[in-house]
Structures are given as C-alpha cells and as structure tokens.
Amino acid sequence: MHADTLKEKAKLSALSDEDLVLRVQAGENLCFDILVDRYKVRLYNYLLRLLRNEDEAEEIAQETFVRAFIHADKYKTIARFSTWLYTIATNLVRNKLRAKKRGPKFLSLWNRSPESDEDVQTVDLIDQARQPDVQFNDKQLGEIINEAISRIPDKYRTSFVLREINQLSYEEIAAATGLKLGTVRSRINRARNYFRRVIEPVLDKGVDF
Amino acid sequence: MRCRQAKKLIFDYIDGVISESDRVGLENHLSDCGACEATASSLARSLDLLHRVPSAAPSENFNWKLRLRLAREKSAWRDDAQSIPTWQRAWNTRFALAALSTFAVVLIAGFAFLRSPWGPGESATRSGWQPQTMTSGTFAPKEEGVAGRTAYDPFVIRRSGGIGAQPVAMGALPGRDAGVGHEGQRGPILDVDSLKAQYTRSTLEYQRIRQLEQQIEVLHKELEKCNPEGQK
C-alpha cells in the first residue's frame, strides 16, 4: 500500500464508526476499509457461532459488508453503526437458516444434526470430556463451546451470542434483532441456562483447559 | 428469599445490574441453599469458559475478496440503478400486484352494485321509472307505495285500465304535463301526495285538485262497472 494511503488510514482510524460512515456516504471509500478492519473479526465470530460453518460465516460476513457499503446512504446516525451492521447480518442469517430448513434434508449415519435428539448429543460432549488426562487446546475448546452453542434453540441463540460473544448491550441487541427489551433479556437468560446444562458435564469433570 | 426469586436474580448479578439490597439477599440465600449455589456457580463457570474461547479469524484474503466483490456488485448495482428510471423502480412487483388487486376489487364491487337491487339500472327497469318523469321538486314514487294507495289514486287507475285519457285529466293541471307521453307505461306518472304537498299553499288550486280527485273517483267507478276484471 502506498505510504500516503497508510498515513491517511492511520489518521482516519481515530474517527468514530459513525463519522467514518458519514465519510463513506460522502464518497471516501478508504473509510469503509477501516470499518471492515474494525468489524470483520467480530462479525465473523458472531456468524460462525450461529452457522457453525466457516465458509458460510465468511460468505455472510462479506455479504453484510457489501450491503452496508451499497446502502451506506440509508444509514442514519440515530443508531450505532455496529447495531446497524449486526442488524444486516442477523437478517441475512435468519434468511439463510430459513432457506436451510426449507431445503432438502439428508440423514447421515455418522454426523447427527444439531436439531436432533439432545440427550444423545450431551453424551457426546461428556464422552469428549471423559477422556483421562485430556488437556484441550484452544481449537478443541472452541469446538466444544461451538457445539454447546449450536444446541441452544435458534430463537435464543442470536441474542445469546450477541450478548456473550459480541458483548452488545441489551438495548443494542433489541435494536439489532427487532425484539422488545424484555424479550431479549428473557431469551438470553433462557439461552444461558441451556448453555449451562449442556456444558455442565464438561465442567463437572474438572477438565483442565 | 425463595429459590425462584434467587434464580432470577442470579442473571442480574451476572450482568452487574443487581441492587445492593437484592445482592445481599441473594448472597445470604446462596450461602443457605446448596441447589441455588450450585446453579449460580455452574452458570458463572460456564459463561467464564465461554468468554475464554479465543476468537476465530476469517481467511487472510477476506479484504481482498471483499474488494473484488464490492467492485463487481457496486458497478452492477449502479448500472442497474441508472438504467431504470425512478418511477419504474418504484413500480416493483409488489406494488403492481397491490394495484392490480385493488383495481380488481373495485371492478367487482362496481359490477355487483350495478347488478344489485340498489343499482340504478336494475331498479329503473323493475319499476318502469324513466329519468324524464322526474322534475324539480318532485320525485318518482316507489313501487312499494302502490299497494297502499286509495282507489282514486291516478297511479292505480293507470295500472288497472291503462286509460289513455288520463293524461288529459292530468294535463288540466296548471303546469303539470309531466305525465304526457307516458301512456302505456306500467310505472307511476304523478303522485297525488306530492301534488298535495306542492299545492296546499294555494287554496284555489287545492280545491281544483279535490275536484279532479272526485272526477277520477267517478271515472274509476265507471271503469269498474265496464271492466270488473280489469284490475290486473
């Protein structure tokens, strides 16, 4: 990258998200690059927890940024940019999951779907943790957590991930999901209980992470 | 504090939005209740574990792929936006469908109204009423009123005998020649009630009407004598 561009980018990095979007609206595309750098990891992780598929998560993350850029002129500063971005992503995920449910279903003898019998899956998790003297590396820990998150029902999972992974406030989650504040609270608390019940066997084994 | 309340407050405690009094109450409850303490501990540990999970990173060429896609989509979007006029873009499928369905509903409702008893075409045909008979200040009598009319009603005479001479009698009324030219029609030509209402202010004219009514009554009786079955 050109030295002047880097210098310009460093200067623009000090601006808030909202100021950057206003500049994008004025045609400064470099500002959008900064926003992408700021949010791509957070957005990707959010989508990965919901979709449990790296390719799909990246695809939806890209689609989210594309839509945010094309429709940047529709952004109003009454909402935070992050909320607006998560709203776009949440809607895309919702459509994706809906399309998946409508699509043809194949039964696999080796890999059970997350929506199948919960008891069996809990046994899987316990079995993973029961291995003696196992020390999980980051990747394994991530897989166990992702597995546990995937077992939270869809309607609770979105709010839960936005809260616990992306650290959004309840108000921001309500804005991003279009739910009432009380509903958001209740869904997050229900999801926390789901998650606790699924992950509890692993914790009970006292496995050293 | 009961366990049910304590389990609700645990979430507020985790979020750090619990009041001081609730916090003290919850901590006292947890020190006494093993089950709630286990739940709170398990919840805190599971969420702590969740927060320790390292975040995953998208592919290294994420930005490069995004730039390519943006360039492609932006140009496609711009071309699309420029090639279609604004009014045509607004006329999207949904709008067109909504407009079409509204038009269809209005069309069906209008057709149903025209075919209904309240429709202008149907009622005119049924009662034999013609717009020419309507003059200012008068109105065409309704068919329902026919049955209740007295024997001297000119309408009844017309229906019963189809008297061609009746317009002559009516024509004797000053300025009331509306009935002329409607011979042979089944519908009413003049309404005595409306005539009365119109001429009560003038005693002279009122008396003349009475005379006419008497003449009509006489004619009616004569007609009955000549044609006892002529009522139909």
Fill in the keyword field for this structure:
heterodimer; A: 209 residues; mainly alpha; Rna Polymerase Sigma Factor, Chain: A; Arc Repressor Mutant, subunit A; 2 domains; B: 232 residues; 64% helix
Short description:
The complex is a heterodimer of chains A (209) and B (232). Chain A is mostly helical and 209 residues long.
Description:
The complex is a heterodimer of chains A (209) and B (232). Chain A has ten helices and no strands. With 209 residues, chain A is mainly alpha-helical. Chain A has two domains: 100 residues, Rna Polymerase Sigma Factor, Chain: A (Orthogonal Bundle), CATH 1.10.1740.10; 87 residues, Winged helix-like DNA-binding domain superfamily/Winged helix DNA-binding domain (Arc Repressor Mutant, subunit A, Orthogonal Bundle), CATH 1.10.10.10. In chain A, helix 3 packs across helix 5, helix 5 packs across helix 9 and helix 8 packs across helix 9. The radius of gyration of chain A is 20 Å and the shape is globular. The longest helix of chain B is centred in the last third of the chain and has 24 residues. Chain B has 232 residues and is mostly helical. Among the domains of chain B are: 50 residues, no CATH class; 85 residues, no CATH class. In chain B, helix 2 crosses helix 3. In chain B, 14% of the residues are buried. At the A-B interface, helix 3, helix 4, helix 7 and helix 10 of A face helix 3 and helix 4 of B.
